[in-house]
Amino acid sequence: MSVVVSSLSKHFGSVRAIDDLSIEFREGAISVLLGASGCGKTTTLRCIAGLEQPTSGQISIGGQTVFASARGIDLPPARRDLGMVFQSYAIWPHMTVLENVALPLRAKKRPAAEVAERARATLTSVGLGQQIDRGATQLSGGQQQRVSIARCLVADPRLILMDEPLSNLDAKLRIEMRHEIRQLQRRLGATILFVTHDQEEAMSLADEIILFDKGKIVQRGAPEELYFRPQVRYVADFLGKANLFPVTARPTAGGLEVVADGGHVLASGQVSGMDGGGRALAMVRPEAWRIGPVDAEGLTGRVEETTFIGDRRELLVQTPIGRLTVMTLGMRSFCTGEGLSLTVEPEYLHLIAEAA
Fold this sequence. Notes:
Belongs to the ABC transporter superfamily. This protein is globular. The mean pLDDT is about 90. A 6-stranded mixed sheet has the order 7-8-9-3-10-11, sandwiched between helices. Strands 2-1-4-5-6 form a 5-stranded antiparallel sheet, covered by helices on one side. Helix content is about 25%, strand content about 35%. The chain is of the alpha+beta class.
């Protein structure tokens, strides 16, 4: 189901929560709206849902205009044929699991037999077929969120909106639910707009990430594209950890030679981000560094701090171009003060065409 937003703005007094936003979301995909608190992602979702009235602009769902400020169109949420899953489970405590899920169909005055059959089938599809007669609040957090998802799905909405639906779950359960949502989307072929501030959640779920800042889209694309090829410093800083430092790129027959301040050659070859030479900001992800002995080629460095994180270790390494963050497999240990060398392959060094 296509969703098209055109010149959308939403002001709260002097604050522009959404600032002239235009975007078409991918049909049949999970689009994750990502960003820090107050960036405009949730307001955008609520405007699409009809829970907030935009200041101006237009929204269409499946080719139908549901909001247009210039024409006075503003369909209520119930007429937008969408389902929504909230951060809170929004479950009625006095109802059973089946009764909670059946609510949207009862609101549409569907026949009782159809309501019961579809509610049971939907609960089975989310793994709750054996829990239908239990009180909804007697379930675990993960099960309650599945009830919320089932209630969203039972009426076969054209569009599914999810607003931080996993934030109240513990870490292990969040990972499990990500997988379940992904499998659900593949099975249904649904269009899902998913709001989160969690970077790992976004990258594990999304077909496309839309990164917001100050009511605008900073960059959109596949998770790998935003992570490895950010267009601006904000994206590099926001997604994961990044080593950022000023460099000069010099054209060569084989691509670019990247030289850090002080004359240290970091890489030579096909480097992403710039076609020609000039000053730039280099980005190297911590896991991209190759560690060698202190007398090998590359940047010489000394370990200032090491942190064990289970499956990996994070090292802070002091080098001639500054302190760098390095990730390595957790099975290899390092000592504070230990010397080493760092190199990076050209394909893992990305240039942002802006001065540091």
